[in-house]
Design a protein that fits this description.
There is one protein chain. By secondary structure, the chain is α+β, with helices and mostly antiparallel strands. It is 29% helix and 23% strand. The chain contains 6 helices and 11 strands. Strands 2, 4, 5, 6, 7, 9 and 11 form a 7-stranded mixed sheet that branches. A 4-stranded antiparallel sheet has the order 1-10-3-8. The radius of gyration is 22 Å and the shape is globular.
């Protein structure tokens, strides 16, 4: 292969890398700037049309802020709902490696929580009303939601009772503590999901390792050809 063709191949590969990085960034939808009220929802969310356009299971990251204006909150809760379907909870349909949820569907967060992450399946999206996936709240403001195509489902939710949920929100109970304490030198990493080297980060814009390897291989071939010409 002539050097000119090798350089053209490198340029094409670099363009592919750039396009891959851009397409992997999550879409952001603004939800609420103010607290919608106790156990209430503003009706804003991610529409069915937007979710279906993703083309499969959707990874959703809620950007939240705890609301406790008078310092009287006894729990902090979020509930993904089908707004047009009578506000029916969708928690039973999601998967997540990190979510702690009550048996009634309310997701519990602590006062220091800033994000809630889960995967919403394509089959659930098909059954949604047109308004789509919205979020009921108790002492929480869902400020925005980032969403993108999921690589697959996550784990089953950790379920707690009503009182356990309240205790977890207040930092008095850790439902995963028992599992984290057994057979692990570093309990803080016991529940962390495994990394995926082939996934593009929506925050950093890092490109998949496989694509980078292909670019490096082409660059190496160019260097060899250049030395031969000399």
């Amino acid at each position: 292969m002539k050097l000119k063709k090798i350089i053209a191949a490198i340029a094409a590969a670099a363009m592919a890398v750039s396009m891959t990085a851009v397409s992997a960034f999550a879409t952001t939808v603004e939800i609420d700037s103010e607290y919608p009220g106790s156990f209430n929802t503003s009706g804003k969310g991610i529409s069915k049309e937007e979710l279906k356009a993703v083309g499969g299971d959707v990874k959703i990251v809620l950007n939240i802020e705890v609301y406790d204006e008078y310092g009287l909150a006894d729990q902090y809760l979020v509930n993904p709902i089908d707004y047009d379907g009578g506000w029916k909870t969708q928690t039973d349909l999601i998967t997540s490696d990190t979510v702690i949820a009550k048996t009634d569907g309310w997701i519990c967060v602590t006062k220091d929580t800033t994000t809630v992450e889960f995967v919403y399946p394509a089959s659930a999206i098909d059954a949604l009303g047109d308004t789509g996936l919205c979020f009921s709240c108790q002492n929480v403001i869902v400020k925005s939601a980032d969403y993108e195509l999921a690589s697959g489902p996550e784990g089953e939710l950790t379920r707690v009772s009503d009182q356990e949920g309240k205790d977890y929100c207040m930092g008095k109970y850790d439902p995963k503590a028992g599992a984290a304490d057994t057979g692990s030198a570093d309990a803080s990493t016991a529940d962390a999901p495994a990394g995926d080297s082939a996934t593009t980060s929506s925050e950093t814009g890092n490109v998949p390792a496989a694509v980078m390897v292909s670019v490096m291989a082409v660059a190496g071939a160019a260097a060899v050809a250049s030395r031969k010409r000399k």
